[in-house]
Structure formats: C-alpha cells, structure tokens
User: Which sequence fits this backbone?
C-alpha cells in the first residue's frame, strides 16, 4: 500500500476508536466536554475519510478531462476539512451553553472518573497519530495528510484541556468547569480551522509558491547564467503535492535547437532535484537584440 494511503487509513482507524470511546464514556458520566470531544472525533473521522479519498484520487495520472492531473483534490479536501472543524466548534459551544443553564438550575452532576482516563488516552493516541500524519504529509508534500495531522494535533490540546477540566472537577467538585472546558476546546478548534483554511485554500487561487522556493529556483537559474542571455516571466503555483514552475528563457540567436533542448533539460533536472514533485516548463526565445545589431550593420 502506498505510504500516503497507509497513513490515511491509520487516521481513519484511530478516529473510529477514539470517537466510540469518548461517546460511550461521555454518556455514562454525563460530561458535555467529553461528549463535545466525541463530536470532534466524529468530525475527525469524516475528515479522515475525505483525506483518504483525496490522497487516492490525487495520485491518478492526467487524463483528457484533467490534463494537469488531480492534485488540487487535496486542497479541496483540506478546505472542506476546515469547514467541518468550524461546524464542530459551533455544535460544541451550543451544547456547552445548554449545559451551563442546566448546571445553574441545579441539575446534571458529572462523575469524572472514566472521563479522565479516556481523555488522557485520547491525548496520547492523537499525539502519536498526528505526528505520524504530519511526518508523512511533509515528506510526500501532501496537504490532505498535513491538514488531517494538524486537525488531530488540535485534538491533543483539546483533549488535554478536557482532561484538566475533569481532573479539577474531581478535586474541587466545581461542575461548571465541564462546560467551560468545552467552550475553550471550541475556541482552540476555531483557531486551528482558520489556519487550515488559509493553508488549504491558497493553492486553489493559484497563489505563487513560498518565497524560499522561488529564491531557490532563481539561484539555480543564476548558476546557469553563462549559458543563456536572460530569463523573464517566472511563474509558480501549487496543485496538491506538485509545484508548477514556468519561465521564458532567452538564448543567443546562434544556438541550435539541440543546444537549447539540452540546456532546458539541465535546468529542469536541477530544479526537480532541489524541489521535489516539481513540474518545470521552459519557453525558449531568441535574443533579437543580436539580430537587430547585425541588421543595422
């Protein structure tokens, strides 16, 4: 199984286990913060399935309808995942407010025992899984896996927040800490969703690659400057894990087609070596200034 698909399936499995455990314990002990975490994990599970679909689809080769490949499905996946996180945060806040009203009226007592156990286990498991997803996502330049990893990394902090809240309830008996912890969880989720939306959505607008990548491309071109006159119209964009780079290269008019072809191959090879998963397109132009000088003389 391809490493990205393996990581996506691992995320699906872990989220299924955690969602079931949180929901069961949350209902048993009557904790809205634990139930809110179950909602978050259900959201994570749906996001993991979306990431799995995106990873499998993005690897398909270009076809007649998609001549540039299917890479942007990963960015779409990341954007959808961010929207799902926003929805989950809204549901958690709604349930927390309702719980505050119930507690204020003297109802609903939380017995935090098993909740402390399941939230501690959840934090540890999500830390391990998110670290794995982020590692594979960065190594394979997969925004879908990286988004899933970022999503689960927020679960580490939210689970720890609920864990601390339940522990304080056990120590102090102050029941209002439960919905307060749930609201803090939701606010952390909103922050994560905002950051994920920015990262996933930018490539859908064909935003240029990071300044560091562009500078690296220009450095590679600079090392070959003795073989051409100049370059211009350097453009970059991202589609899934593929970085698209195209430019116009001006050569001396007396260069043969073979020489121009060999130079373009050299530049492409150097860029692809330094920038993995890159697609380089070079448009060659003759240096008309030399032709004009010869004509005038």
Assistant:
């Amino acid at each position: 199984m391809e490493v990205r698909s393996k990581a996506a399936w691992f995320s699906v499995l872990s989220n299924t286990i955690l969602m079931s455990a949180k929901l069961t314990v949350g209902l048993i002990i009557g904790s809205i913060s634990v139930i809110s975490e179950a909602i978050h994990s259900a959201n994570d599970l749906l996001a993991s399935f979306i990431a799995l679909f995106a990873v499998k689809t993005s690897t398909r080769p270009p076809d007649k309808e998609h001549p540039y490949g299917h890479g942007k499905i990963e960015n779409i996946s990341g954007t959808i995942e961010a929207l799902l996180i926003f929805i989950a945060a809204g549901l958690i806040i709604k349930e927390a407010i309702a719980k505050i009203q119930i507690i204020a009226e003297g109802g609903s007592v939380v017995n935090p025992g098993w909740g402390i156990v399941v939230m501690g286990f959840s934090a540890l498991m999500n830390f391990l899984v998110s670290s794995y997803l982020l590692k594979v996502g960065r190594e394979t330049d997969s925004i879908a896996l990286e988004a899933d990893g970022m999503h689960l990394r927020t679960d580490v902090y939210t689970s720890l927040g609920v864990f601390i809240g339940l522990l304080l309830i056990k120590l102090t008996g102050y029941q209002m800490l439960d919905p307060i912890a749930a609201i803090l969880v939701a606010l952390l989720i909103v922050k994560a969703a905002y950051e994920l939306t920015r990262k996933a959505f930018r490539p859908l607008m064909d935003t240029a690659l990071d300044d560091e990548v562009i500078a690296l491309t220009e450095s590679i071109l600079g090392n070959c400057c003795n073989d051409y006159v100049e370059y211009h119209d350097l453009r970059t964009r991202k589609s899934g894990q593929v970085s698209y780079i195209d430019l116009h290269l001006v050569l001396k008019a007396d260069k043969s087609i073979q020489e121009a072809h060999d130079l373009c191959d050299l530049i492409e090879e150097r860029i692809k070596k330094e920038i993995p998963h890159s697609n380089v397109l070079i448009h060659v132009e003759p240096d008309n200034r030399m032709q004009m000088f010869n004509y005038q003389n």
